[in-house]
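Final paragraph of the annual report: two paired records, presented back to back.
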Amino acid sequence: ASANRRPYEVKLGVTVESVAQEVAARAQLAEEHMGLLITRVDPEGPAADKLGPQLIITHVNNERVRTLQDLEQALTGVRAGDMVSLRLYSIRAQQSNVVRLRAGGQD
């Protein structure tokens, strides 16, 4: 089933989309909290017990990510089993934190 999944979905076990302007406005997001909103977490994936929807990914391995292209770029050198550091912003809690997880997929 991983044939039609994007590389980032396999590596992180999440599906994301760019934060929509209306969401940003409603949540009064600061510029530094703009990024990629997690819309789905794969229950079998690397992020299963670590991440949830409504979290915004702002950095991957200390690289700023705003778009899917940024995310794919930040994950280019990441292989299955590598540790990945994600800086996340929680809209609900209005705070950032860093989560580390082991990249999924087969190499």
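The closing record of the year follows.
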Amino acid sequence: YKEMEDAAHILNAIAQSSYLKESEELAQIVNKNISKKTNIPNKGVYQDIFYVLMGAAMPRILISTAFRTNSWDEQLPCRRDFRQKVAEAIYESVKECKESSEKGIGS
């Protein structure tokens, strides 16, 4: 990330760490729901810094549902029913995470 100046990098790190707990909770919920809805084995949640997620001042995750290096996974994104199940799982996950967060605020 050479194009990022030191100050911008520091500000991004602060922003990322302020939403780390929420991002991890959302990732866990999405991972659970996608696995349940699609019958894809749960491969866990991992943390890393991704350029595409930088700058977002909110919980943020990157979702991988299939891998081109696996011949069984490779065909999944081409299937309409698979894409629908993934979309539903993501929607339900965001809704669940939002409701959980709001419940915590009200108590």
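The helical segments are 6-18, 20-38, 71-74, 80-106. This concludes the annual technical report; the extension proposal builds directly on these records.
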